[in-house]
């Protein structure tokens, strides 16, 4: 997934990429794997600028799925710092750029929540429930959004 | 991961990267790997 130019551009453009190797950096690997409770490779964490984990990817993924997961981590970080406008933009971008990936329905759900958190307008949740009638009907996220119908 | 080549400028020192991330408010991608370096 990393040799893919889109992955490299996406990561280098907005993140600090750090790699620790299970055999070649034994001490550092032990320290960090204990700190973040990592028990398998590859495990990829999206950390916020303070070093707090916001998203975890375990196992290899093809480029599109991987990029969507990293984007999901960045969106979660924005949501956690209560920058709901940025979070909504990032969640919607996942749906637009990676519509066939696993994070897309999750992005659609949380884009609606972010819009609601920013505006206080419950219409954002109703719109989100309606969107799940058009797309991603057979997902857990559609079930979660159905309460807003 | 089965691949080794990458255009990503990986660092292998976490603590300095965390300091840079705090200063720039950039997120960190932390990859625990067994792939050949």
Description:
The complex is a heterodimer of chains A (149) and B (37). By secondary structure, chain A is of the alpha+beta class. Chain A has helices spanning 5-14, 26-35, 63-80, 84-97, 103-119, 123-134, 140-145, and strands at residues 15-21, 43-47, 53-58. Chain A has a single domain (5-148), classed as Alpha Horseshoe (Serine Threonine Protein Phosphatase 5, Tetratricopeptide repeat). In chain A, strands 2-3 form a two-stranded antiparallel ribbon. In chain A, α1 (5-14) packs parallel to α3 (63-80), α3 (63-80) packs parallel to α5 and α5 packs antiparallel against α6. The model of chain B is unreliable at 1-5 (pLDDT under 50). Chain B contains one helix and one strand, in the order αβ. Classes of the chains: A alpha+beta (149), B alpha+beta (37). β2 (43-47) of chain A pairs antiparallel with β1 (27-33) of chain B, so a sheet runs across the interface.
């Amino acid at each position: 997934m990393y040799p893919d130019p889109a992955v490299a551009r996406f990561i280098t453009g907005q993140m600090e990429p750090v790699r620790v190797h299970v055999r070649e950096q034994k001490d550092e690997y032990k320290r960090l794997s204990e700190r973040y409770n990592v028990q398998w490779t590859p495990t990829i964490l999206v950390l916020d600028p303070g070093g707090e984990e916001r998203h975890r990817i375990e196992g290899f993924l093809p480029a599109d799925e991987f990029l969507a997961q990293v984007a999901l981590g960045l969106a979660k970080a924005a949501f956690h710092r209560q920058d709901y406008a940025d979070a909504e933009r990032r969640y919607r971008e996942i749906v637009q750029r990676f519509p066939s990936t696993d994070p897309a329905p999750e992005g659609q759900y949380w884009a609606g929540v972010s819009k609601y958190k920013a505006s206080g307008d419950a219409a954002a949740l109703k719109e989100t429930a309606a969107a799940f009638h058009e797309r991603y009907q057979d997902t857990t996220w559609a079930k979660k959004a159905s309460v807003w119908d | 991961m089965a691949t080794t080549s990458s255009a990503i400028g990986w660092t292998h020192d976490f603590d300095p990267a965390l300091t840079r991330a705090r200063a720039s408010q950039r997120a960190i991608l932390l990859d625990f790997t067994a792939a050949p370096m």
